[in-house]
Amino acid sequence: MKVYAAINAVQRALSISGIEKNRRNTQGSGYNFRGIDDVYNAIAPLLAEHGLCIVPRFLTRVCEERQSKAGGALFYVTVEAEFDFISSEDGSKHTARTFGEAMDSGDKATNKAMSAAYKYAAFQTFAIPTEGNPDADAETHQVESAASILDGLRSAAMEGTAALKIAYTELQPTDALWKAEGAALKLCAQKVDQVQREKSAPAPRLDPAGR
After folding, report:
1. How many structural domains are present in the chain?
2. Confidence (pTM)
3. What is the CA radius of gyration of the chain?
4. What are phi and psi of 62, to 5 degrees?
């Protein structure tokens, strides 16, 4: 049954790319999430590449009418769905069953519930991570020595406290290095700021007698 090989191939690809939670729900407490479009965009080319089809089948739908805080109508829909994962190579299939829930004040509650069912069927079948694990050869990390980090911090300190804060964030010195050098660097940066303020301060005005 080649359907499992196809599912595993899609899993392998998604383990490298992942799907980030880059969308934000701004209602209530707010949270980050992965939308249905993110799922479609990520898995559609992989399904085509590995000969895997996903065919939905919705078994039940329950709709309840509720009232919003403003007094309007809200339609709360729950659907139960099955998704057949089918190998295009030999026709073998595996079926996953999920539920989807959604609310809407118009006619989109059922659409949203179906999208939720599909999204979580994909998440659970392919074990899609929020962060990928790219190939080691795809990234090159520059490792800086403690001496070069300290040189960078010293140079920034000579430009003032604002530059030192930026350098601290960018260079990320170890706790040990910062404990040993941080006080002196901050003092240097503060002195630079003081000199700069004194230079930019307006000259005192003299009276007609030159006093």
Report:
1. 2
2. 0.61
3. 30
4. -125, 130
